[in-house]
Amino acid sequence: MKLIRVGSIVLITYTLIAGILTPMVPQPQGPFQFPIIPGLEEKARNIFFHVPTAWTTVVAFLVSLWYGARYLKTRNINDDLASEASAGLGLLFCILATVTGALWAKFNWGSYWNWDPRQTSIFILLLIYGAYFALRSAIEVEETRARLSAVYAILAGLTVPFFIFVLPRLVGGLHPGAADDPDGAGPVVQFKMSGAMFVVFFIGLAGFNLLYVWMMNIRVRAARLAYRRSIQEG
Amino acid sequence: MNGASQIAAVVRKDVHSELRNRYAINALGMFVLTTVATVLFALRSESPGPAPLAGMYWVVVFFSAMSGLARVFVSEEERGTSLTLQLTTSPGVLFAGKLLVNIALTLLLTTAVTVLYVIAFPTFELKTPEIFVLTVLLGSVGFAASATILAAIIAKANSRGTLYPVLAFPIMIPLLMTVMSATERALSGAPFGEAIGDLQVLAGYCLIMIAGSFLLFDHVWTE
Question: I need a surface site. Which of A27, A47, B17, B164 has the fewest CB within 10 A?
Answer without folding.
Answer: A27
